[in-house]
């Protein structure tokens, strides 16, 4: 998606909302809670053909905080091949 192509429908009509403000704060729809005292701003990418949305956390410190505070998702062993 960051490379400008939609992974769902293959369209190249991908737009980046990384400059959209507010990125966080009281109108925090463009952010997610990391913990009760911490939120992480999101960079959003939208495909305007199918509406698919991808979000990325750009702040490396928030990513480290998630590693410390969130449970890791274990890979399911019976993966389809
Ligand atoms: Zn798409």
The mean pLDDT is 87
What about the largest sheet?
4 strands, antiparallel
* Ligand set: zinc ion
Number of helices: 1
| String of helices and strands | EEEEH
Give the oligomeric state of the chains in this entry, treating copies of one chain as homo and distinct chains as hetero.
Answer: single chain
Number of distinct beta strands:
4
Alpha carbon gap, first and last residue: 24 Å
The chain-level structural class is alpha+beta
Q: Give Rg in angstroms.
A: 15 Å
Q: Poorly predicted ranges (pLDDT <50, ≥5 residues)? A: none
Shape descriptor:
flat
Strand content: 25-35%
Total domain modules: 1
Which percent bin holds the helix content? 10-25%
Structural write-up:
With 81 residues, this protein is of the alpha+beta class. The chain has one domain (1-58). Helix content is 12%, strand content 28%. Strand 2 and strand 3 form a beta hairpin. The two termini are 24 Å apart.
Summarize the structure.
With 81 residues, the chain is an alpha+beta fold. It is built from one helix and four strands, in the order E-E-E-E-H. Strands 1, 2, 3 and 4 form a four-stranded antiparallel beta sheet that branches.
Keywords:
81 residues; binds zinc ion; single chain; alpha+beta; 4-stranded antiparallel beta sheet; flat; 1 helix
């Amino acid at each position: 998606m960051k490379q400008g192509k939609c992974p769902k429908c293959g369209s190249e009509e991908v737009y980046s909302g990384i400059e959209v403000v507010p990125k966080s704060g009281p109108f925090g729809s463009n952010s997610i809670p990391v913990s009760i005292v911490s939120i992480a701003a999101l960079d959003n990418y939208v495909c305007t053909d199918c509406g698919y949305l991808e979000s990325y956390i750009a702040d490396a410190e928030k990513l480290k905080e998630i590693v410390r505070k969130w449970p890791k998702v274990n890979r399911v062993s019976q993966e389809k091949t």
